Amino acid sequence: MTRNITRRAALALPMLAAARGTLAQQPFPNRPVTVIVPFPPGGATDLVARPLGAALQRVWNQSVVLQNRGGAGGSIGMAAAAMARPDGYTGLIAHVAYSSIPAADALFGRAPSFDRAALAPVSLLTADPQVMVVKADAPWRSWLDLVADAKRRRPGDIAYGSSGPYSAVHLPFEMLAQAGEFQLNHVPYSGGGPAITAVLGGQVAMTASTPSVVAPYIRSGEMRALVQTGARRVALLPDLPTAIELGFRGVEFYLWVGFFTQATVEADIQRRLREGISAATQEPEMRRQLETTGMEIDLRQGEAFQAFLDADRQRVEAAIQRIGKVE
Known about the structure:
By secondary structure, the protein is of the alpha/beta class. The protein is built from eleven helices and eleven strands.
């Protein structure tokens, strides 16, 4: 009896090995793909990740599982993705925290929160500027009005709410203040939503968010937009000038969202990831879902995405160095 079982097991081993070999030779992906979103549901990364995941399932005919692994400003999820098995089956949807967290760690002399070199950029998906908004009854009709008022007052008299130190709201406000040679009062909140509530409630004068987030408040007459931080105007707010147009040199900032994999993933699998994402972003349903949020696809892949990241990192690192240590 034991001899028969042993014999059957020995015969099964080559069959199992052959099956594994056949599976490995099938086009990527041949099993479910996990995509880590290193922030809680509802944020910019999540708003892009969900329609992308659904579109990739249709393109690949394979399950795509989203994992929201928030915490520590995004570093927990990014660290998990960086340390995942480098086979292409664990992706990452990240944003500007990919640039700001390592810069803040270096400023404070801390050990890196995650290994940025362990992540390979696959595709930039969106790149939205930040729009500086005030309550509709605020005294400033334009950004230049506000700047002139800030320079007349005591430094820091005008307060803005952010989603925390070195966040995607804190950084562009300080870039504007540094370029215009005036000072604002930074009031951190637990997130972008509470900062908007604080503006509407009169606790702070200003905050910032992406065009898709603030446009409803502008249309309803609750808020007024003063300036935005992109290199060119956006379709959602075509009359809103950029900071560069107004003479604020070097002020360019985006809350971007991009897809990453591990740096040691095979080149062919990285190519297949790029192809899959490119096809997904062409799907009418994904485009429709993003359009309902006011977000626009800005697909850049491979070297083009890397060039975008290099420029973004330089701007962010310079801004954090100028801001200095903020607890």
